[in-house]
Design a protein that fits this description.
295 residues; alpha/beta; 35% helix; elongated
Length: 295
Amino acid sequence: MRERLLQQLDAARAQHPVVWIAAPAGAGKTTLVASYLQHREVNALWYQVDSGDQDIASFFYYFGLAAKHSGARKKLPLFTAEYQLGLPAFTRNWFRALFAQRSAPTVLVLDNYQEAGETAALHTVLQHAADELPAGVNLMVISRAQPPAELTRLSAANAIATLGWDHLQLTADESAALVQTLTADASTPTPIGTDALQRLHQRTQGWITGVVLGVRRGSSPPSTTNRPVPPWTPLPTAPTCSTTSPPKYWRAPINPPAMTCSSAPTRSSAPATTCRVSTCAGSVPPRRCSSVMTT
């Protein structure tokens, strides 16, 4: 457990209503937030953003379903055609109704936010939702990109705390602890010497996935020249997707607690893509799923 990052998240939540975590793929963003919520025993409403949320009606529909399965007593309104010209007012009213049904402390998590795209209406929704956050309620956004220009006003008002790649990079001691954990697993029993461990940390520059791959390959760390976008290179605003699709269920490298989910019926006539809403306990919800985590 990376206690220094948990403490940074504590401080960020205490001083800022919005916490934005931006780092490249494989940096441990989702695992960090899931572990934080579990260890701090904070109630959370977790929503996995995908490209279908560029349709703002789809976002409100599935986020409303997630809220319902987390215990919301009253149905939240649907975003229909008559609200198109009044998105800011609709957003404020929608989130007021949501927050009225949740007790503090609570964290709303928007994971994989880069999938919303560069010009998504979701940026506008985020801006006005942040204005309605009551005391004790925080919004955490997990993304591969920095906050969009639409949130400049919130940044200027010091309403957003940002944890970036510099924060998420493993220190030398954290790399060593991760290697020790991985080599204790029967599937990777080969120990790594001190010199090899130092080389591994230097070549991966604290990239969690790189350390994991290096251990699984033995003492040979992965070559950074084979990665199209190394983690220490600034990412473009809208990074291209990798050619290998991630698994349906997130497989974190640091053995998070087991996840149990109970599926709920889907509605085939739902707007945009059809997703499954799940109530999950203890770890990261399935990808491409409007979901809620309870502790």
